[in-house]
Amino acid sequence: MNEDGTKDPNVEESMDKAEQQTPTPEEAPIPEPSEVVAEAGPEPAESAEEEAVAAPKPKKAAKRITPSEGSVRATGRRRTSVARVYMKPGTGKLTVNSRSIDEYFERETLRMIVGQPFKVTNTSGRFDVKAILDGGGTSGQAGALRHGIARALVRVEPTLRSTLRKAGLLTRDPRSKERKKFGQKGARRRFQWTKR
How many CB atoms are located within 10 Å of the residue 146 CB? Predict the structure, then answer.
């Protein structure tokens, strides 16, 4: 409209053209469902090289040691140590983490702890043992290996179960470090108390 209140013919014509060009919601074309999906998805790769780069790389599998034929597998635990034991008939060779037992456990007491299941059952020199030890210290690892060897012996000869049970070699030792408590210096130890 003009200042004097009359309609301007030029403005009226331009508004009519704009209304004619923009379609109303009822007149707008509805896209096909296949067109909508194609627009939303990623663009297809043009060559094989682009596909290889775009594909995620698979993670490397952890190194696995497979037991040989005729071997028995068992797991032993003590504190935070875990021993994976592979036992097979042999000459009594003990290998721990690809090292001999004398090399791995330098203390005689630890080697004695590891050999207890064989000594109790009179099976020394009849089985070869290959073990993989993880976690904890040397004492905990020796206890875990003893537990694993005892469990493996039971799998090889079930008649040895009662002998090993009486010696207490099949029971998992539940003792481990107790957690520190808040408001205290340690698991049981309190802060020093002062009266004043």
Answer: 24
